[in-house]
Each structure stands twice: as C-alpha cells, then as structure tokens.
Amino acid sequence: MALTACIDMTRPVATLINIFTVSPDRQTELIELLTRATEETMRHQPGFVCANFHASQDGERVLNYAQWESEEHYRAMLDNPEARVHMEQAAKIATDVQPRLFRVASVHPR
C-alpha cells in the first residue's frame, strides 16, 4: 500500500512534529541538512511515509512534519546509526530541538 502525506483521523500512522529553534542566519543551512538527510537516509528506512520542512517567516524556526507507518518504525529509525549522525548534525545547528509524536485529533476539510 502506497502512503502519501494526508491528515486523516482514520490513517494508522505516527506523525512526528519536530520544532527546531535556530538562528535566522542558519535556517537555510538546517533545512538543507534535513533535506539531504531525508534524501540520503530517512526515506530509505522501513516505514518512512513522508517528510516536509517548513521555514518560519522570522527565520527562527524550522518545523519538520513527518509520517511513519507506525511508532515502532519511527523508534527503529532513532536507533539507526546513519540516522543518528544526521540528527546529531541538526542538533548542532539548532539551539533547541523538540520532537514529539502526535495523533490526529480533529480534521476539518473545506
């Protein structure tokens, strides 16, 4: 089954929302690192569905919205040495990193 990013209460996915605080002069650097990490490593991990990066207009935040097929897939990625290298590099650029898993609680389509 091919999965794509979609906010839907009935989909059994683990949603990661990771908020990075960053100096505005390093926001682009962080997004480039996260993009490279996703292309080289994350998207090849079992259970990966998607990753999206959002840059705040004030330059102080980067938001990663990602989906994994399950929490177990997400946790297995955290234990992967290749993935850990990228996460450590991102933590050196950011001044704060706040990853959390979420479930969709409410959806309001147009």
Structure description:
The structure is a single chain. The chain has helices spanning about 25-40, 70-80, 80-95; strands spanning about 15-20, 50-55, 60-70, 95-100. By secondary structure, the chain is α+β, with helices and mostly antiparallel strands. The protein has a four-stranded antiparallel β-sheet with strand order 2-3-1-4. A hairpin with a 5-residue loop joins strand 2 (about 50-55) and strand 3. Helix 1 packs antiparallel against helix 3. It is globular.
Mean pLDDT: 92
Count of DSSP strands = 4
Strands of the largest sheet, in order across it?
Answer: 2-3-1-4
The coarse overall form would be globular
Query: How would a textbook summarize the main sheet?
Result: 4 strands, antiparallel
The structure class reads alpha+beta
Low-confidence stretches: none
Sequence of secondary-structure elements = EHEEHHE
% residues in beta strands: 25-35%
Q: Helical segment tally?
A: 3
What's the Cα radius of gyration? 14 Å
The N- and C-terminal alpha carbons lie at a distance of: 26 Å
Work out the helicity level.
Answer: 25-40%
Please give the structural blueprint:
Layout: E1 14-21, H1 27-40, E2 48-55, E3 61-68, H2 71-78, H3 81-93, E4 96-102
Antiparallel strand pairs: 1-3, 1-4, 2-3
Helix pairs in contact: 1-3
What descriptive keywords fit this protein?
3 helices; 110 residues; alpha+beta; globular; single chain
Short description:
The chain is of the alpha+beta class and 110 residues long. The chain has helices at 27-40, 71-78, 81-93; strands at 14-21, 48-55, 61-68, 96-102.
